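Supplementary Text 2. Reproducibility record for the structural model of the 459-residue chain.

All settings were left at their defaults, and a single model was retained for analysis rather than an ensemble. We include the record here because the model underlies the residue-level annotations in Supplementary Table 4.
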Amino acid sequence: MDVADSVLDLVGNTPLVRLGKLAATDGLRCDFLAKVELTNPGGSVKDRVAITMIDAAEKAGLLKPGGTIVEPTSGNTGAGLAIVAAQRGYHCIFVMSDKMSDEKAALLRAYGAEVVVCPTAVPPEDPRSYYSTAERLVRETPGAFRPDQYSNPANPLAHELGTGPEIWRQTAARVTHFVAGIGTGGTITGVGRFLKRENPDVQIIGADPEGSVYSGGNGRPYLTEGVGEDFWPTTFDPSLVDRVVMVSDADAFLTARRVTREEGLLMGGSCGTAVYAALEVGRELGPDAVVVVLLPDSGRNYLSKVFNDQWMFDMGFLRSDGITAGDVLAGKGDETPALVLITPDQPVRRAIGLMRQTGVSQLIVSVTTELPLAAKEVTGAVHELELMDRAYRDPGVVDRPVTDIMTPPMPMIGVGEPVNRLVACLDQGPAVLVLEGGHPIGVVTRSDVLAFMATRTPG
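Retained model, structure tokens:
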């Protein structure tokens, strides 16, 4: 009988498929192929890494029977590790950031793992960050082992021994360009090592979210999950990468939706990032080129975000017909700054000064004042009328931190949402924060809406 002994034997040997419709629509002349990793048992490329890391840990005596695997993960590595753990009798604790989709946490819990969610908007050294939390859990948990996919050499080795040779064999040694997103860097490093050893002329291209360190950012702010980083992992060898293509969240998400509908391949933002970069590269190539883009997982973990039209509207990725919130925002002109930011640790006196200096009646309280800002980095708001009332009743409040007097964040609305939804949001408060591509870009007040309507009313 043709039967695998366990689910772990099903990892790898994933198919290569031609994205013919996509290539034809974009006028590509090269052969445009996708390495489809969603066919792994855990649904992602990380199954390969999970087996290799656990095999190495067992061999080195770092993980003993009945032990606990602790790992900070965006979900896919966790799923792979959970499958290995189920087969070999280990317990799992996974640490995730709060920007990850609910489906990812639910998936890990379905495998019997414990999931700890940590805030995104803190630096790696903060004790609340998912890196620091994972380290604490390792210290506190008897028999714990942290694979640490960001520094474990077994991560790129899995791709050097598996993914790279598969691509070489499947393309009959004709691959000329390999494109993959850069997260831990393990995939692109391992595949790059093998392919360049076989043919030094093969071009290795990294796809990176706008804001990630690999394309010149500082690690914030972007919404694409499972790719990009705010530090340089030791599993990534940048010397193997010939080019890095920076991809915005909007391009990643809209490409994922497009490929899903045109090719029937359900994919999320990290796949969209890789395909967008591959298309950029492919447009420059002739008919002899063979481009292979690695699709790390499926879109099933992103149904509540990338494939949820309302979420896409709310974040400012989609636009409706007719007058939108963006039109009202554009009608304000340039008399006042689009956004005036203050951090919660600043004194209220500073908030008052900013209002007088800029002529605005509300401030955005956020964990950083660096633009562009992510929606999740907004922690509250300061409104002029409420602040005046507080200061009148308690003059000493001006020397206390903003966090003591701020209100919850103002309602948020996508730049492309219809103006009637903007008006409905203004029923909840005096101002609304407008988002474009997941980033706050301006504030609209009730008076702004009235002024906009006045300019459109005859006579």
